[in-house]
């Protein structure tokens, strides 16, 4: 069985034209026909900037997919007096068995809080671990966050997919740390192109990644260019086949 995976930093639905439009985001996701989707920079009743919408819920409903939201920031005071949250989400066509969210609150709070979201999905009698994260720009925090993620993944002993906006360059020290233990799907099947995903109109940097462990064969990898103004990032997709 082949699985289509996509990771997309949606910038809370704010496009390059500065308009907030979740319909554009959902259209890109529908067009991809992805089975598993990881989203970064997702608002949950956060503020007027996203119209106090629970964005993961809205997109999942529009796509008819199951989902889990994992906050990295939680604040008081949405329009109804409840909490405001911002983080990442995983959407999938497959049954969700379990989920955990791991805030990186064991690290110094230097800049914006980050987290790792994990979902266990049942796929053809396999329990598959799916992770989404959005790492810090700060080098010290980035390294510590990467080490934490790798420890979680290598302890799992399951087919694992790890994706998101890693805020790192290919072949950097952080990238080498990851690829000592995981496969970069772009490196495996990116057809020799750089795989730039940011900024979306004229991309010149690769910030978004999909990694797997040895339970998967990488069939292909692509930067999705169906809409260059829906977000400031372009989505990254890959097709995988479970081989173990």
Question: How would you portray this structure in words?
Answer:
By secondary structure, the protein is α+β, with helices and mostly antiparallel strands. Helix content is 20%, strand content 38%. The chain has a six-stranded mixed β-sheet with strand order 3-4-2-1-12-11. A six-stranded mixed β-sheet has the order 5-6-7-8-10-9. α1 crosses α2 (55-63).
List the helices and strands and how they pair.
Elements: E1 2-9, H1 22-32, E2 36-44, H2 55-63, E3 66-76, E4 83-92, E5 96-103, E6 115-123, E7 126-134, H3 139-156, E8 160-165, H4 173-179, E9 183-184, H5 185-189, E10 208-212, E11 216-223, E12 236-242
Parallel strand pairs: 1-2, 7-8
Antiparallel strand pairs: 1-12, 2-4, 3-4, 5-6, 6-7, 8-10, 9-10, 11-12
Q: Helix content range of the residues, please?
A: 10-25%
Q: Strand order across the biggest sheet? A: 3-4-2-1-12-11
Reading the helices and strands in chain order gives: EHEHEEEEEHEHEHEEE
| Helix count, DSSP H or I runs of 4 or more residues | 5
The helix/strand class is alpha+beta
How would you sum up the global shape? globular
Q: Please, what is the average pLDDT?
A: 93
Number of strands: 12
Stretches where pLDDT is under 50 for at least 5 consecutive residues are none
Strand composition percent: 35-45%
- Please tell me how large the radius of gyration is: 17 Å
What separation lies between the terminal Cα atoms? 12 Å
Largest sheet features: 6 strands, mixed
